[in-house]
Amino acid sequence: MQYIQFMNSFKGLLLLVLLGGVSRSFAQDDLFRVKVGLGLATYFGDLKEKAKPINQSSAAFSIGVSYDITDQIIGKLDFGLLKLRGDDRFNNRIDFINRNLSFQTNIWEINLGVEYDFLNMKNEDYILSPYISLGLGIFHFNPWAYNRAGEKVYLNPLGTEGQGLPSYPDRKPYKLLQLQIPIGAGIKFALNENINAFFDVSLRKIFTDYIDDVGNTYPDKNAILSESPNGAATIALTYRGDELTNLPYPSTSLNRGGYTKDIYYTLGVGISVRLNNFSIGSGGGGGGGGSKRIGRIGSRSSRLRNPRSVF
């Protein structure tokens, strides 16, 4: 319930920010732009053996505003909603398959960054440019899995690796709100004077190894059963090889995770829109009725004749 309330508040804040960005676009002579993107999000970590670009991917959505600091340097604020997942049954290593773990998580993220265009699309005769970007942001995750009864169970409260138990004082519960560094590259293409299309690849460097709830050695089964308030439910989701071949619970000396650090990345396409051709003016006289003027969106050919109007 708290998560739903938070997401509703987040959506309201996002709407206010975007409306603010649009209103500033009217007044700032095309320095501000609004963009929207769709794509795929992919996880790589302890539950995924190989970092394939498109494998066990899910939908990703982004929306944001940007500001032209210079002709080729752009500041941006992006909001993203996406989903990640990983499942041992798609791995090749027999010990991964026998572990039989899986997870899913919804993610929301807020990133502040800078983008650099290699070609000057404003002052030169270019209708496309590759670019790179770097930023800093926060993201929220909350991994879950389905138990044997098909029920959705959030994993963080269980402490599947002994987090928060007296027997494991060094294993603290992981925080669901984390920092990240988005690193991206892409190419943008001018559709006309006001609209650009773009293709973007963005990797998130994160600072937790528990986006998949896996990252250490197996905890002692007896400690979990005696110290955890949900011991049986926790053990059932700590190791799931017994669901496949009745394998015994592993030794505490064996790695449950920690094979690789978790990351995630997105592949997406989208459009950015410059709204400077719209203006709102007030009429003169006693009543002063308002008037709205909508400028013509130029063609690509007019854009090439006047490259200073690009973007």
Short description:
By secondary structure, the protein is α+β, with helices and mostly antiparallel strands.
Describe this structure in words.
It is built from 6 helices and 12 strands. It is an alpha+beta fold and 311 residues long. The strands form 3 sheets. Strands 1-2-3-4-5-8-9-10 form an 8-stranded antiparallel β-barrel. A two-stranded antiparallel sheet has the order 6-7. A two-stranded antiparallel sheet has the order 11-12. A hairpin with a 4-residue loop joins β2 (58-68) and β3 (73-87). The protein is elongated and about 70 Å long.
CATH architecture: Beta Barrel
**SSE string:** HEEEHEEEEEEHHHEEEH
Shape by Cα distribution = elongated
Measured by DSSP, the beta-strand proportion falls in 35-45%
Instruction: List the domain count as a whole number.
Output: 1
Number of helices: 6
Number of strands: 12
The strand line-up of the biggest sheet is 1-2-3-4-5-8-9-10
